[in-house]
Amino acid sequence: MGTQKELMLRNGQLWRISTDPGPPPGKDRWGACVLASVTDMSFSDADLAARAAVEGRCPAIAVIGPNAEAVHDYIDEIVESKGASDVLTTFNSGANGLEEALSMLDAGLSGRGPIYAFSNPPSFVENGLRNMGFIAGEKP
Questions:
Q1: CATH code reported for the domain at 4-131
Q2: Which pLDDT does position 86 carry in this prediction?
């Protein structure tokens, strides 16, 4: 099991940031699942998020990284083949990809519940949240 950290955002969202792709199997429900990496992700990195979406435990998936569109398309294939048409998926890449995705999640893209975020490297998502002034009790 990799590193995990929980952060409370100023909008009341609880984020669990992990170095493990996920979320983990189980009954936990998530407001959204985030897959964020500064390097290309393998399709297997998306399997748990796609499974959680199909099971109704993750209503939105945001993919951020150099090959975000390909990983997003892979997730869409799985979700659509299982008939989970109510799952929202999005992808962002490029220099502002992380900031664009975090802004969408902050604006309400996610459902109710905590956010599960896979982050490679571990500091990638946390630094993005911090730089945008989203962490509760901190100023940008």
A1: 3.90.190
A2: 92
